[in-house]
Design brief:
The complex is a heterodimer. Chain A is mainly α. Helices cover 80% and strands 0% of the residues of chain A. The model of chain B has no long low-confidence stretch (mean pLDDT 91). The chains are: A mainly alpha, B alpha/beta.
Chain lengths: 231, 238
Amino acid sequence: MDGPFATAISLIATADDALLQIIGLSLRVTLSAVVIACAVGLPLGAALALARFRGRGAVIVLFNALMGLPPVVAGLLVYLLLSRSGPLGSLALLFTPTAMIIAQTVLILPIVVSLTRSVVEDLWAEYREQLTSLGASRLRAVPTLLWDGRVSLLTGVLAGFGRASAEVGAVLIVGGNIAGHTRTMTTAITLETSRGNLGLAVALGIILMALTLTLNAVAWGAGQWAKGRLG
Amino acid sequence: MSGGGILPLSLRGMGYAVGGVALLSDVTLNIPAGRRLIVMGPNGAGKSLFLRLCHGLIDPTSGQRLWADGLGRAKAQAMVFQRPVLLRRTVAANIDYPLGLAGLARAERAAKVAQTLERFGLRAMANQPARLLSGGQQQRLALARAWAMDPEILFLDEPTSALDPSATRIIEEMVAQFAQEGITIVMTTHNLGQARRLAQDVAFLHRGRLIEHQPAEQFFAGPQTPEAQAFLAGDLIW
């Protein structure tokens, strides 16, 4: 086994600079996208759960459908938006990490919105009379419901993180996979594999898997702890 | 606390219908301050609906619900449900929550929470997660939370129907104490023993109509309607 795996292990063991740089950028992009998607998606999902308006069903279906939006399509949309002739072309964001954050936010947002809506809607059915009786308006109920649904919501946030960290299409299109600038773990794996440089590809694959595994273990542990602790 | 402002509550021909089906019709009733009114009736008579309409969780589709102050300030009312909904936070935080909604200042809230915990023997569990308490403790907390809101009137919807006898006794004692302090009580129950212990006045609902309303001694001594007679007789048989 003196092949890609040995190379991969040595790259990881020596904390190779290029490797660390790629991991750092990937985390920065994906975590930023998760934070933005949560900041927008949690209140939006909760509002969608509590509000009653014409076309609400259509909005819910749209967000549910967008959960399956192919990353390349999301990338393409953001590309059209940011390209020089696009509506936001003057910002010159294409092929920057910012563009990648935008594209991944577009991917994660529907997951956060849909899951939040579902969790908050169920909680509201249970809490509605009591919260109303205690004097909470619908608007005031939103933070209460989000907080009481925090354990379930964490799952949704993690699903979003998983989707963003695993996708390659969107960041490749809007980032351009420029070495040292917009190269992430997934785009690097794609490139290095096609170049036959399997060592780096495998190293990144291992780290990506380890990262996902760790996050899910932490989330599961937190969920179990919360169940025992919060009831 | 009695005569504080929102009472009496007068219901004038209050009714509630869904899709043309009347679930409650033509209830005319005066709820004066400082009384303990027990609402009785067979299952499906509309007891819970009656409470929800009074409390304002639902608005009547016919007739009127008139508070003395014209509004029935929500802050002067509280309700305890059959199954209390406690927030996923500590016992103390559950008591604090409605006080925050009512806009009380932080120091005032802290004092009130401490006072409430002390009074209802909840201090030892102040920092426990409310959802992990036993059923009886949860209902005790729900009543304590309602008390902390300083209501003029307290609605209770079969608060002990899911509890064992000792927990039931504690809840009944709390309700009796609240009444002594001048809080007006409106409570539904299908437990006749409980109704006898707590009622000053009885309202008897049957198929969505108020068919009897009188002082408790008179009601239990001899109800006027055959429905109420049958209901009380059922109690003797069972």
